[in-house]
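As a warm-up, study this chain.
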Amino acid sequence: MDKDVSAGSGITTVAGRLALSITLLAFGLGHAAVIDGVSAADAASIAEYVGGIALFVAGLVALREGDAAGGTAFSVLGALWFTWAVSETASGNGAGLFLLLFALVALSLTLAGGDQLGQGVHGLFFVALLLMAVAEFAGSEGLVKVGGWFAVAAGAVAWYAATATLAHWPTVLPRRAAGRGVTATG
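Now compare it with the structure written out below.
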């Protein structure tokens, strides 16, 4: 096993982010109801196998490789995606409670730090889940759609994060100098 790869930059992270992006895009597009005849229920099999099993396995591999942050994130998200997929029949307050608990995990992952793209994914996903939880409690179809769009945005950022690593695209935002007329040296 190659220990020279820094934690969070290996192929396991790329695979995990790709699995997460596919799941978030399917979940978000299903809830946003942007494609005629495609609903959130249609995302359940993707969430079960890609978001659940594949992401959980990626998390275990990341933990084995010494990536505690990525391994924890992927394995916990995988377990929650699997649970969501197999309990898709839940609705109302039960579904709202599950989405709220799922949102708290996404918030923890956002606040845990890491790279900017990872925090962006988890932050957008947190907002999506929070909106959907409130929508379940309030019975608001409009909030579900808005939450779906936040999930789509999170999926797009996760896809970019994985693809950027493979294609050697920028993965951090450039920082601006401290003030006017200040130039960076080196």
